[in-house]
Amino acid sequence: MNDQTALITGASSGIGFELARCFARDDYRVVLVARHLEELQEAARLIHQEFEGIDIILLPFDLSLPETPRQLYAETSKRGLQIDVLANDAGFGETGYFSDIDIQTELNIIQVNVTSLVHLTKLYLRDMVERNSGRILQVGSIASFSPSPCQAVYAATKAFVLSFTEAVQHELKQKKSSVTMTILCPPPTDTNFFRTAHAENTRAANHTVSARAVAEEGYDALMEGTARSLPTLNAKFNFFSSLLLPDSVLATLMNTQLHATSK
């Protein structure tokens, strides 16, 4: 086992779980963070089944609560864990017209996708900059590049993550820091996202890529210190479309993906 530790949020399933597998494969100690202990235990069982002897630490924390990032940081500090890699994967969305969705749901999306991500980045990045070593992976989305009717708040949070990450990347270069930050912008992926967002029957949900493929491309980009990862041709196509088409057209295309059920 190497002597490095990776902390992954949203680690009980989907891209977060597959990222944890990547770290375990390379002999990292992995700190798995998600809301439900039982789901974390099952994730750990699967990882141990594949990679024997890996040190796995389970921390059930709910990132929709404002105090959680500071509590999580305090817990890892109390345990004497130096977090060498932070993967901010936790996030969720909701589907429907903004005027119809419960406001608390939207505020929870902002708390998890934006506020907790920024707070955790602040806490662990300071330590990394002081050591002049470390890596951070921020999980964005192809929704980072265009407005998305019927997922208005979710897409806006991912646009924030993109802008925030690219700004901090520039700051790290100005400081001549060895710390790197990578943003992963996957296309629709086969995870629990669409079920949680009540979008199981949309066209987007029926044209997904595997979480493992997304995580492995993101992991490779993180290890190489690449600024941005666009896994699969689908993500690259969406990104270049966002450069060529006006926002009004992009919004119409995204709206179609979230309303039309594939036959």
Automatic annotation (TrEMBL):
The coiled-coil regions, if any, are none
The record, for SUPFAM superfamilies, names: NAD(P)-binding Rossmann-fold domains
Q: Keywords in UniProt for this one?
A: Oxidoreductase
Asked if the keyword Cell cycle belongs to this entry, the reply reads no
GO MF annotations, alphabetized: oxidoreductase activity
Q: Which Pfam families does the record match to this protein? A: adh_short
Query: Which InterPro entries would you find in this protein's record?
Result: NAD(P)-bd_dom_sf, Sc_DH/Rdtase_CS, SDR_fam
PANTHER family in the cross-refs: ALCOHOL DEHYDROGENASE (PTHR42901:SF1)
Q: Which family does it belong to?
A: Belongs to the short-chain dehydrogenases/reductases (SDR) family.
Protein name, entry field: Short-chain dehydrogenase
Please name the taxonomic classification of the source: Bacteria, Pseudomonadati, Bacteroidota, Cytophagia, Cytophagales
